[in-house]
Amino acid sequence: MPPDRRSDDLLAVLRRGGDPCAITHVERLPRRLGVTASWPEWTPAAMVSALARKGIEAPWRHQAQTAELAHSGRHVVVSTGTASGKSLGYQLPVLSALLADPNANALYLSPTKALAVDQLASIESLGLSGIRPALYDGDTPIEERDWVRAHARWILTNPDMLHRGILPAHARWARVLRRLQFVVIDECHAYRGVFGSHVALVIRRLRRLARMYGSDPVFVLASATVADPAAAAQRLVGSPVAAVSHDSAPRSGADFVLWEPPVMADAEGENGAPVRRSAPNEAARMMADLVSAGARTLTFVRSRHGAEQTAMTTRRRLGDTDPDLVDRVAAYRGGYLPEERRELERALNSGSLLGVATTNALELGVDISGLDAALLAGYPGTLASVWQQAGRAGRGDQRALVVFVARDDPLDSYLVHHPEAVFGTPIEAAVTDPGNPYILGPHLACAAAEHRLTEEDLELFGDRARSVIDDLVLRKVLRARPAGWFHHETRHPADKVDLRGSGGGQIAIVELDTGRLLGTVDEARAPAAVHPGAVHLHRGQTYSVLDLDLAAGVALVQADRPEWSTIARSVSTVEITETQQQQGYSGPGEFVSARDTAGSGGREGLATGGRGQLPTGGIQVGLGRVRVTEQVVGYLRRRPGGELIDMVPLDMPEHVLDTRAVWYTITNEILAEAGILERDIPGALHAAEHAAIGLLPLFAGCDRWDIGGLSTNLHPDTGEPTVIVYDGYPGGAGFADRGHQVLVDWLTAVREAVRDCTCAAGCPSCVQSPKCGNGNQPLDKAGAVVVLDLVVNAMTAKLVALTG
Ligand SMILES: [Zn+2]
Ligand SMILES: [Zn+2]
Hints:
By secondary structure, the chain is an alpha/beta fold. The strands form 5 sheets. It has a 7-stranded mixed sheet with strand order 1-9-14-13-10-12-11, with helices on both faces. A hairpin with a 5-residue loop joins β17 (506-511) and β18 (517-522). α11 packs across α12, α22 (681-700) packs across α24 (743-756) and α24 (743-756) packs antiparallel against α25. The chain starts with a helix and ends with a helix. The model is unreliable at 596-613 (pLDDT under 50). The structure holds zinc ion (2 copies). One zinc ion binds next to loops.
């Protein structure tokens, strides 16, 4: 069969089976030949022949470039597509160094155990002598740990183990740290938001100790394609990093379809809004059609429960049309056990399974080669994940079929109408904020416990380190002595620092029947995530929350299979406590003033509060610190298909969050001139705020639940109509800062998403928000477009004035 026939046939199957208008775009990703380079001249002969035995005759150009930079002592990040062979880029310099110097060592960090296991197998398969690679993670038996510390030279571990196991016991790792030549950070785009900020500080702790033992390792990072990988890597490592981002690996072609499910004729959403068919239901229908056509298909959904439902729906449909095929469709719900993954790989590769619905568990580290199609039921959270999931499909020379099925929300619907956001220059950045004092503080305490902190160490930890240390001294966590700052508790503080936590308190999620601790959730997020009645997903399993006791720090849950999901609704007030940057425009097109109170030396602000001290009037854009007081007022229950069941009111205590925010203000006069009546201002701002929260994740790689917002026709701190978007974590995770950095692009996308939505007066795909505490009222869709036009036009006119 000619390579293109298969995907054309499958595309025809899709067109026949669904509403043809649902296809908003088909991107034909061409087949591409690889570009090779010669082996770097320093590559040991043993490696060249070991790789040749595996069929690798020459490196791709990006692999050689990465290797050369690392070998020359530069920190480097390679940011190329899925399956482009990033690992050879770091294996070359690291293995060469280990072969050349019998005392040299390397660390390898990966975000998942499965990936480290695969990496170990990859190194072992080369059969090079003297490398002694070894895993060191929570599963490593005690007796093996001693061997790893004493003998292993390529140690494969993860940031949590580094943080809790290796750095606090650094004296026992002296052999490794003395000659630590390379640190590899694989899949480094996974380190973003709060987790990424923690990891950045763990890496600074590692660098400090390595220096103390006399080494200064070179960092080699591997990343999915993101916007500005060098900047993201630099934030992670704390020093300049060179980027290699031109992908020269070969690629088999694919047809990538963007699909928007139709509006359901018989369903009505909140305030009478139209509702689209749910992405998992739509994907299940497609998978049934594709399996009937003999296509091996993988469908990605968000939860394990969702995977089971999708597989069940697919099987039910096949029961009507092709009963023989019912048993060849399954859900993947096996966790991460290697043998279960291998079993599934075998079943899919042999064709005994034709359709599998899965969570993102199958996104990475799975060797599936025979798939015809990948269906993505909803945005998986990042564009990097979109490409990982899409990359699962492809069979040799044959073009694969990939379908992205939009959920009924602004981000998904923006993507299906803006193919350039998916296929063009990457717009998503891996955002972190290692300067967040809530995260920096605990890591400085850990660092001091590992070895006294000195003046020279401050530079490594950034501008805010000094003030955070002063605060730790005041709180008696650290003691200031002439020789430096000391941590004086006997217990190492690392045990209390959860790399996935916000630096605030944690609520334990406990299963009532067994007393088993399932995990923790940030105190700040607990009222929204684990309020009584909430349906809580944990590692793909569904639980119902019976009780939340904030004072005791416990949420009690039980395993459950309710026929609905829940979404918390909350209301908030926001006080601007410090304006750090502000730009003003007198009206559309006229730039008035810019004020960066952060100065040149960092982001310590000077101004407190808004009114009077900073210019007002016109259109103002600000960035700074805020205090959010939030209260969960109830929750919605929704069926898997998206229909609303009801809203259950709750009486929950308020909680306070000190964080960072980006905002804009527009005077009543400007709004009036633009035709917005005073009574319509709240609805216009509210709609613009909702859509902005829906789309920031596309630029910041966060979740819409990671951020919050507020709109008001009169904010006490600005004295004007104001829209605020804030980070949902104490001290912020970098999301508001990223929003401020890309404000024009972000708000332009928001304007287009709202303007282009086909609904009459607002729906979940544009201005309605699932978490709105005001029941999505008032919302003025047309007014929002006017507001966004005003801000975007004012800001772009200024850019033209400055550059033109
Ligand atoms: Zn709409
Ligand atoms: Zn709202």
